[in-house]
Amino acid sequence: MPVTFIGDVHGWADRLERVLAQVDGDLVFMGDLIDRGPDAPAVLDRVHALCDQGRARCLMGNHEYAMVRGVGCDALGITAEPAFLHAWAERYGGDAVLDSYGIGEVDA
After folding, report:
1. Cα distance from N-terminal residue to C-terminal residue, the chain
2. 20 to 30 A Cα–Cα from 89, which one of 18, 95, 102, 108?
3. Can you list the alpha helix ranges (DSSP code H) found in the chain?
4. Which residues of 66-105 are buried (b: 16+ CB within 10 A; e: fewer)?
């Protein structure tokens, strides 16, 4: 069975669906599912469902790491760095993720 590697979706759910319609077999998402595009929640929901079905694996990209570094994650042993959260929102396009979840600007 073929394996398709997909990277840099960046919150573009419609583009992801077009790619998925063209491939069969297992999928490996190479990270950068979030930032820049308008629909990170739909991308994350779709990829999560594919992983739950056993059809996909997902790696954390630098954009996900930047977000996690800003908000922190106990499970990964990462302490929140509020100043980095502001940098993620501005430099990585994280403001698009915040907008897609209805969250306003972050405080530095």
Report:
1. 48
2. 18
3. 13-20, 40-52, 62-71, 82-91, 94-100
4. bbbbbeeeeeeeeeeeeebbbbbbeebbbbbbbebeeeee
Q: Residue 47 belongs to what domain range? A: 3-100
Confirm whether 107 is domain-assigned. Answer: no
Number of domains in the chain: 1
Q: pLDDT (tens digit, 0 to 9) for every residue of the chain, 108 residues total?
A: 899 999 999 999 999 999 999 999 999 999 999 999 999 999 999 999 999 999 999 999 999 999 999 889 999 999 999 888 888 888 888 888 888 888 877 665
H or E element at residue 26: strand 26-29
